[in-house]
C-alpha cells in the first residue's frame, strides 16, 4: 500500500533525530521511472513555509524524481536562512541519489512554525534514508511523517494493470503549532504532467479542500502526485481521475477520523443549492461554527445553530424555506420547528447534517469534527 | 446609570416566569418625551428572529415610545406564529401604557432558538413591568435582560446638561443557544432620528462591530438609541457622537470581559494597513483562529499562529515584512523570528497583540477572548 503500491517507486522512513523523542521523522520517496511526471497542489495561505515555496518552483518543471519529507519542524516563518535549508535538503538528496537533479527534488515539512530545522541531523538522515530505500518502504515512510497523528494513513486504488497509492498525515491545521496536511500519491500509470495536474486538481477540489476541521489554514499543506509510467499502461482519463479521487477521498476521511481531540466526525451535506459554490460556502460556514461544534460534542441536535450559520452566508436562500436534518430527522422545516428533536439518535461517532436551501439542484459535502475540551488542551501550552 | 440616567425615561425589570429558574426575565424601557426619536442597528444575519424583523419595521418610522425586552427565549426560527407573538407583545405594551401605539414599540428577545415564548407569562409580565416603571428602574432593567451574563452591564457619558446612558447583555453569540447582544441606549439630548442614526452607526462600527468573541453571529443582535429631548439641549454633533461612542465602547469592553468561559481578553491592533478594511479583515482573522485562541489560553505567545491567520486574508502585505508583537515584545520581525518569546509576560488577563502589515498607515482594533475547555463545557449539552 502507500506510496510503494505502484510500480517504479521506492521509499524509506527513518528516525533522523529531528524529533527529540526519537520517533521516525524523515521520509524519502523516489520515482525510479521511466517517467518522472508530477503535479502538486499547495496551501492557499499567503504565508508559505520555505519547502512550499521551493516545491512550487520544482513542480513548475512538471518533473519530480524524489520527495524528502520531514516531521518535527515546519520550516515556516524562518526567513531566507530557512529557504537555504530547504535548498540544501534538495541538494543533499540529489547528491546521495545517483543521477538526480536538485531542481527535481520536492521537499515537504511539518511541525512547529518559526524554528529552524536541525540540519546537522536532517542531512545525514537523507543519506541514511537513501540507503534504506525499498519497494516495500511505503509503510515506514507514512509512519515517519506523523506528528500528532495517532495512526498513519495510506490508501490505494486502480485497475487493469495500473495503480494509484498514497500516504497522508494531519488534518487541516490541528496540532500545537504542528501545522499541515502532507500527502504524496504515486502511480505507475503512463501519463504526462498535464494529465496528472488535471486529475489531481479535480480530486483535491472535492476531497481535501472539503475537509474543514478547525478552520485554520496551514502554511505547509502539500499534495503531490508522481507518475513513474512503470506499468506501461496509459489509462482511460476518467478512470484514472476516479482512482485519484478515490484515494484522496479515502485519505481525507482518515484525516477527519483522526482529528485532534475530536469525538464526532461530522458529514455536512448541503442540498438544494443554486450553485455548487453556494453549497460549499454554506457547508463551510456550518463546519466552522464553534457553538454548533460544541453542541454536537454534547450530542445536542441544535438546529438553531445550523440556521444561524447558514444566515451568515451570501448563498441564495429564503430563510422561511430552509430545512435541516440531523441524522436523517428533519428537525427544522421551513425555517422553523420540524420533527421532534428527541427522535435524533446522537450516540454514534458519525453525525450527518443535511441542509436543504430549497433554492436549486446543486449540492456539496463538507467533512468536519466537533470542538472538545481535549482539542483545547492539546492546543494550549498546558499540554506541551 | 443605565437607561434611566438620561431625563425623560422610566424603566422596569421583573420576573415574569419566562425563565424556569424564576430570575428576572422581562424589561421595559419607556420614553416619556417630549421627543420619541430613535435609531437602531440590527444583526446582519439573514436568519433574523421575529423581534428583529418587527423592530426593523418600527425603526423605519424613526419613533420609539417603548422597548420590551425579554430573556429566556430568542423567538428565532419560530415561523409566522413567532412573529404574531412579537406583534402581540407590542400590542400589549401599547395597551398598558396609556397613549402608546404598537407601531412605535420595539421588541427584543434573547434565549434559546427554535422555541415559542410562553405568552401566557410574558403578556401579564408587561402589565406588571408597566406598573413598576420608575426613573430609577434602569438597573433592574439591565438585570432582567441577562442570560448567562455573570454581571449586568451599564455605562453613561455626556456633558453640558445632556446625558447618554445604556445597558447591554451578552457578547457575540456565546451561550448555549442563548444568542445575542442586546443594547438599549437613551439620551435626553434634543436630536432628530437622522442624527441619532448617524451617531449610532458611527459608534457601533468601531465598537460592537469589532468585538469578535467566537465568530458566531446571532439571529437577534439589536442596538437601539432613543432620544427624549427632555434636557432641551441640542448638543454639538461631534460631542454627541463621541458620547455615544464612549458608551458603546465601554459596554463592548464589558461584554468581552464577561465572555463565556474566557480566561483572557485579547486586544488585537492591526497597524500599518493599506486600508481600514484590510486592518479589520486581518484583525478578525486573528480573532477567529481557534489554534491561536487555545495557545493564548495556555499563555503561549505563539506568533506563528498569528502569521498563519494573517496569511488567509486578502489584505495588502508582503509576508517577509510582517511584524508581530505580543504584550509589546516583537516576537516576529520581517516574517521571521524576532525578539525572544521568553520575554513575553502572559500572566495577566489582558493580552495585547499588535500586527504590523508594513503596507500603509491605517489601523483597527478588534477585541476577542481565548478558547477554553470551559467554553466547550458551557456550550455543549453536558452543561444544560
Can you put this structure into words, describing what you see?
Chains A, B: Catalyzes two activities which are involved in the cyclic version of arginine biosynthesis: the synthesis of N-acetylglutamate from glutamate and acetyl-CoA as the acetyl donor, and of ornithine by transacetylation between N(2)-acetylornithine and glutamate. Chains A, B: This is Arginine biosynthesis bifunctional protein ArgJ. 2 copies of one chain form a homodimer. The model of chain A is unreliable at 174-179 (pLDDT under 50). In chain A, the strands form 3 sheets. Chain A has a 6-stranded mixed sheet. Chain A is globular, with a radius of gyration of 22 Å. Chain A is built from 10 helices and 15 strands. The first copy, chain A, starts with 8 loop residues before the first strand and ends in a 5-residue tail after the last helix. In chain A, strand 12 (329-333) and strand 13 form a beta hairpin. Chain A has 2 domains: 2-257, L-amino peptidase D-ALA esterase/amidase (4-Layer Sandwich), CATH 3.60.70; 265-383, ArgJ beta chain, C-terminal domain (Ubiquitin-like (UB roll)), CATH 3.10.20.340. Chain A has 384 residues and is of the alpha+beta class. Chain A has helices at 50-60, 79-96, 119-131, 138-144, 193-206, 237-257, 276-287, 290-297, 303-310, 373-379; strands at residues 9-14, 26-31, 37-42, 66-70, 105-109, 153-159, 162-169, 182-187, 222-227, 265-273, 323-326, 329-333, 336-337, 350-356, 362-369. Chains A and B meet through helix 8, helix 9, strand 13 and helix 10 of A and helix 8, helix 9, strand 13 and helix 10 of B.
Amino acid at each position: 500500500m502507500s506510496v510503494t503500491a505502484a510500480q517504479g517507486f521506492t521509499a524509506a522512513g527513518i528516525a533522523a533525530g529531528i524529533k527529540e523523542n526519537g520517533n521516525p521523522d524523515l521520509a524519502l520517496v523516489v520515482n525510479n521511472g521511466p517517467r518522472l511526471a508530477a503535479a502538486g497542489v499547495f496551501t492557499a495561505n499567503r504565508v508559505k513555509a520555505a519547502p512550499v515555496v521551493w516545491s512550487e518552483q520544482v513542480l513548475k518543471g512538471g518533473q519530480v524524481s524524489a520527495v524528502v519529507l520531514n516531521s518535527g519542524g515546519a520550516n515556516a516563518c524562518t526567513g531566507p536562512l530557512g529557504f537555504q535549508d530547504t535548498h540544501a535538503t534538495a541538494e543533499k538528496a540529489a547528491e546521495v541519489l545517483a543521477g538526480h537533479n536538485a531542481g527535481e527534488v520536492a521537499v515537504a515539512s511539518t511541525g512547529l512554525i518559526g524554528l529552524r530545522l536541525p540540519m546537522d541531523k536532517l542531512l545525514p538522515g537523507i543519506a541514511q534514508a537513501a540507503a534504506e530505500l525499498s519497494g516495500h518502504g511505503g509503510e515506514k515512510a507514512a509512519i515517519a511523517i506523523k506528528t500528532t497523528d495517532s495512526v498513519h494513513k495510506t490508501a490505494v486504488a486502480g485497475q487493469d494493470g495500473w495503480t494509484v497509492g498514497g500516504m497522508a498525515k494531519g488534518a487541516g491545521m490541528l496540532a500545537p503549532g504542528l501545522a499541515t496536511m502532507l500527502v504524496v500519491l504515486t502511480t505507475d500509470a503512463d501519463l504526462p504532467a498535464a494529465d496528472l495536474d488535471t486529475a489531481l486538481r479535480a480530486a483535491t477540489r472535492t476531497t481535501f479542500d472539503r475537509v474543514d476541521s478547525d478552520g485554520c489554514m496551514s502554511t505547509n499543506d502539500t499534495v503531490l502526485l508522481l507518475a513513474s509510467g512503470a506499468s506501461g499502461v496509459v489509462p482511460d482519463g476518467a478512470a484514472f481521475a476516479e482512482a485519484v479521487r478515490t484515494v484522496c477521498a479515502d485519505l481525507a476521511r482518515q484525516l477527519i477520523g483522526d482529528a485532534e481531540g475530536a469525538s464526532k466526525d461530522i458529514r455536512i451535506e448541503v442540498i438544494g443549492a443554486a450553485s455548487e459554490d453556494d453549497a460549499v460556502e454554506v457547508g463551510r460556514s456550518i463546519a466552522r461554527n464553534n457553538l454548533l461544534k460544541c453542541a454536537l460534542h454534547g450530542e445536542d441536535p441544535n438546529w438553531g445553530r445550523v440556521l444561524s450559520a447558514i444566515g451568515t452566508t451570501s448563498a441564495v436562500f429564503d430563510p422561511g424555506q430552509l430545512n435541516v436534518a440531523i441524522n436523517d430527522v428533519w428537525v427544522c422545516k421551513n425555517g422553523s420547528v420540524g420533527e421532534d428533536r428527541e427522535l435524533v439518535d446522537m450516540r454514534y461517532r458519525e453525525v450527518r447534517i443535511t441542509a436543504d436551501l430549497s433554492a436549486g439542484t446543486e449540492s456539496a459535502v463538507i467533512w468536519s469534527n466537533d470542538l472538545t475540551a481535549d482539542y483545547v488542551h492539546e492546543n494550549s501550552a498546558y499540554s506541551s
